Amino acid sequence: MEAPFSGALTGKKLLLCVGGGIAVYKALELVRRLRDAGAIVQVAMTEGAQQFVTPLSFQALSGLPVRTSLWDSAAEQSMGHIELARWADRIVIAPATADLIARLAGGHADDLVSTLCLASAAPLTVCPAMNHHMWLHPATQANIATLSGRGAQVIGPEDGPLAEGESGPGRLAQVPAIIAGLAQAETGGRTEAPAAAVVDSRLQGLRVLISAGPTYEDLDPVRYIGNRSSGKMGFALAAAAAARGAQVVLVAGPVQLATPDGVERVNVRSAAQMRQAVLSALPADIYIGAAAVSDYTPRVVSDQKLKKTAQTTGMTLELVRTPDILAEVAEQTGALKLVVGFAAETHDVEKYARGKLTAKRLDLVIANRVGMAGSGFESDDNAATAYWADGEREFASTSKQQLAGQLLELIGQRLDA
Asked: Given 131, 227, 368, 382, which residue is catalytic?
């Protein structure tokens, strides 16, 4: 089977700038895989990178001489760094250390790599790799936000074990993920700015409780009442919150989604089970009610399959209201700093969203219109409008991963409101 974006990198001239960190060894594999994808790869190394891997290793894999210094007299006879900057179709920084990211954000040109980036009009891809405390530091987050704001593509970092024995967001993205991101960029596909690429770290250390997915209300051992919620939005929020350093508990309805790294997951089926799991997970600093909880449940659940007969022409079900989990959490006192609800509506979105905001005494409501292509339930994309007592903010249609990051930025800002 042909891979997605197959051929997208064929003939592309990629300038791979290698920063000085332990993840340099992964850049060797990246060179090999880029060439397998048909790209032409020219490598430039910082001084720090050369402390981990020799230029000869990259030369052997790329098939081209490796540039290591701005002061290479032979290469600079014809202003080689300018030629190289003009040659590149795209510049890829992998690994991008905290120091290198800071210097690129500041517009420095004090070594070969920073000068190449400043002298080139080629699009930039940054693949961060560093200790998780360095990644989550407000200075690094501000620098990566600056680069993103200038149009740089950011791939990673991933969450997991780090070289120094700690764990957290900071691992260089896996080579296949980098290849896929570059291919998407070349085909005009939307690239995912990772959940970890945030503007600030105001959620770091906070306990964030999120409910996601549908609930199923059983009629009998075979049938149930449910809804079309996929849980994707709630899971994206959980992943993004964990990447920001939050302690995340995710109460998930019956969905087949992988648990995000660093997230504690509690699986439930019914609205009653979700209520019990949410209340048991309190206290929390923030509650995000992204689940589509069924409004009604059968008054009586049959312990045997309800059979149809030749005489059966219809069935009457008696339904009762399910507990209002969101309102109940909003009534809690103690550690809660912010209660965020979701409103999935088919019409009069603002009217119903603001009604929910007021009636349930919420701090924030995220509303979206369902039943439209490319938005809402079952879709990988979403658009939303956030409402609070004296304001609102609209979010254009994008992937749910991207939207999750944007929403958490707003939630961080509302913590200070």
From this structure: 227
